[in-house]
Amino acid sequence: MTPSQASDAKPAQKLLAAHAIKIRIAVWSSLVLTIGAWLAPRTASTALSAPQERPAPLLEEQVQLREVPRPFRGVQDVATRVRDYTVAIRSAEPPAVETQNDFSETTARFHAAGFGVFVSETHILTQALALDGRSSTQLLTADGQTLAAEVAAYEPSSGLVLLHTNTSGSRPVPLASESPDAGTLAVAVGWWEGRDIAVPVFITSVESARYSIGPMNGGVMPGMPVYNVDGELLALAGDGRDGHAFPVRDAADRLIARASAGERLASFGIAFQDLAGLLTGIFGDKGALISDVVAGGPADGAGLQPGDVLLAVGDIDVDSAATATQALSSVQVGTATVLRVQRTARVRAVDVTPVLAYEVAALARAGERPSGPEARTIFPRPLLDRAGVPATARVLSINGRAVSSGAQAQREWRRVRRPVALSLLHDNRRFFAAVEPMP
Amino acid sequence: MNEMLSVGLILMAAFLAGHLAQLARVPEVTGYLLVGVVIGPAVFDLVSYENITTLGFLSDVALGLILFNIGSIFEASNFRQVGPGVVRVTLWEATLAFGLVCLVLLGSGMTWPLALLLSVVAMETAPATTLMVLNEYDAKGPMTDRLLALVALNNVYVLVMFGLVTATLTLFESSGQDWLSAGYSAVHGLLWTTVGSIALGALVGLVMDFWAARAKESGEAMTLSIGAVLIAVGASRWLGLSPLISTLALGATVANASPQGDRLLHALGRADPPIYAAFFVLAGAELMPSFVLSLGLVGVGYTLARTAGKIAGARIGLRSQDVPAVVRQQIGYCLISSSSLAVGLTIQIRSAFPEYAATVTGIVLASVVIFEIIGPLLTRRALLVTGEAQTIPAPLRQVADVDVAV
Question: Residues 42 to 81 of A: which have CB under 8 A from any B CB?
Answer without folding.
Answer: 43, 45-60, 62-66, 68
